[in-house]
Specification:
By secondary structure, this protein is of the alpha+beta class. The chain has two helices and six strands. The chain starts with 10 loop residues before the first strand and ends in an 18-residue tail after the last strand.
């Protein structure tokens, strides 16, 4: 698998699949982090676990002050790469991103019945 490297001053997200789960890699010039993801159930297509604030402060101090920004990047890039018709729910407290299908469009309204010519 080709490794995706960020441009200088940029960032990248690489999604690796291993059956029903995998790893999501976020990289930028300041550092990188690895997250676990798995397919969900019900109305949740996938769940990405990026870790809570305490974990980030301990394991990714370079990113702790920009956690919300990075969570948003990860969510948006996961949607762009793998789930174009989804939206992300980000729980900043737990560090959980849930991808759910976007609200379906309502079905078109049925036209009224045609008048019966025999009436």
């Amino acid at each position: 698998m080709q490794s995706i490297q960020p441009e200088p001053g940029g960032w990248s997200v690489e999604i690796r699949e291993d059956g029903r789960n995998g790893t999501l890699l976020y990289r930028e010039s300041a550092g990188g982090l690895s997250c676990y993801w798995e397919f969900g159930g019900g109305d949740v297509l996938a769940i990405v676990d990026v870790g809570n604030e305490a974990t980030w402060s301990r394991e990714h101090p370079w990113a702790a002050g920009r956690r919300a920004e990075i969570l948003e990047r990860i969510a948006n890039e996961a949607i762009r790469q793998k789930a174009a018709n989804c939206r992300a729910g980000i729980n900043e407290r737990t560090g959980c991103i849930e991808l759910r299908p976007s609200s379906p469009q309502p079905p078109p309204q049925r036209p009224p019945p045609l008048p019966n010519p025999r009436s």
